[in-house]
Amino acid sequence: ITNYTKKMPWPVKSDPETYGWKELVKDKTTSWDGVRNYAARNHLKAMKKGDNVLFYHSGNESAVVAIAKVNKEFYSDPTSDNETWASVELKSSETLKNPVTLAKIKADNRLKEMMLVKIGRLSVMPVTQEEYDIILEMGK
């Protein structure tokens, strides 16, 4: 992957009715498991301890709501008997003051190449450091 920093930021998507940011804050850490897409799995495997994670609520909310951190690098997904699938452990870090909606992201021309815009169905993906910084600025 080119144009990415060594410590890469990653968006992860979750339906807040299934497991949202409030649950991660309460739990402090969670196994990010159940991913059954090969590209998303490969991104999970590339995550490194300490990487920043944009926590994105999918569904009706469709917004980046917080920042988490990779607490433990990939391991075999405990929700699958197939060791092909991977999980990482995430820990809660910081709630954004203002959620950054997908509509706002799409409206910002600087983010037009962002994978979240181009491949919206992928649940785990990298972003460039510049994209990450823009999202953080929008969330202040």
Q: Count the helices. How many? A: 6
Secondary structural class? alpha+beta
Helix content: 25-40%
* Share of β-strand residues: 25-35%
Largest sheet: 5 strands, mixed
Nearest-angstrom radius of gyration? 14 Å
Regions with little confidence, pLDDT below 50 for 5+ residues: 1-5
What is the terminal-to-terminal distance?
A: 29 Å
E-strand count: 5
- N-to-C order of helices and strands: EHHEHEEEHHH
Question: What's the layout of helices and strands?
Answer:
Elements: E1 10-14, H1 16-19, H2 21-27, E2 29-32, H3 38-46, E3 52-57, E4 63-76, E5 86-101, H4 102-107, H5 115-118, H6 129-138
Please outline what is shown here.
This protein is an alpha+beta fold. Helices cover 29% and strands 32% of the residues.
